[in-house]
Write a structure and sequence with these properties.
Elements lengths: L1 H13 L4 H17 L4 H7 L6 H14 L4 H11 L5
Helix pairs in contact: 1-2, 2-3, 3-4
Length: 86
């Protein structure tokens, strides 16, 4: 849980999502690491949630449907937190 909170804190500095989207984004990152696949069905299985699998899958769909991700900010986040740029 500590890592999830750290990730949410870091992500909130770069992405102006509401609390629910920020949590979903964090869950997506951890699910990507866990399942090592971008298939939404597999990501839903990797979500650390007690919700039904179908609900987790639908949450991921809604995230990608509604969230506005600024590609420049996303790139900056990746590069900066990987220590490629300061």
């Amino acid at each position: 849980m500590h890592h999830a909170n750290q990730l949410k804190d870091t992500l909130s500095q770069y992405f102006h999502f509401n609390k629910s989207r920020l949590e979903c984004f964090s869950l997506l990152v951890f699910a990507l690491i866990k399942v090592r696949n971008v298939n939404l069905s597999e990501l839903a299985q990797g979500f650390d949630s007690k919700a039904k699998l179908k609900s987790r899958y639908r949450r991921i769909q809604r995230f990608f449907d509604k969230a506005k991700i600024d590609i420049d900010m996303f790139s900056f986040f990746i590069l900066r937190d990987c220590k490629i740029i300061n």
